[in-house]
Design brief:
By secondary structure, the protein is an alpha+beta fold. The chain contains 4 helices and 10 strands. It has one domain. A 10-stranded antiparallel β-barrel has the order 1-2-3-4-5-6-7-8-9-10.
Amino acid sequence: MKVSQVVIVSIIVIASCNARKPTIDAKLVLLNRYYHDSIIKTDTVYLTKIRKKDTVFFCYADTLFTEELLHSREVYDYSFMKLAHSDSAIYLDYVTATSLVAQKTFNINNQEFKVSKYYYDVKGSFDEESSFFYHKDYGVLVCFNDGWSELAYTIEYDQTSRILIDRILNDTTKFYPKIRLSKEDEKILDSLIEQDIDFEVDLTLPDSAGKQ
């Protein structure tokens, strides 16, 4: 074998090894949990993004998530996987598919951010229906529980993601599913709650049960 052929073979082997080796990127993020649209708890968690061939794993955990843990099928809350070249679905817990239902582009500081909305629903089950809002450079930004009509959690990755989350939550085009009342409707509801309503029971009972 000629020297040039040996060099070419070596380059091919090295390139193949690099192609098989996953790329791993880790960072700290803020996880905000909500109740009635107010933050009730904020945790600092690790996001480890692992890309293997055409699949990207978004792993959220209290500690750094390694490839060894991935192979051992350790599953953490909020973790999911996605095919790198397809926006059709994300897979919660790496197996449960959620369907793409909408996409919207937000402009922040003259940069465009395309957010994908995925819907989770289990046939025959109740109150688990949820909408997940995802951006490719971050991961899941917002989770809204459609079954309870409640904001479940948001995940902040940097200052720009915080602005993006705020844009999603204040969307008025039905991209974000929250049903928001107008100020006038809120005043009406508040007035009804504050009112004391007096009433008398008008009910005539029979003298004795079963009397003909």
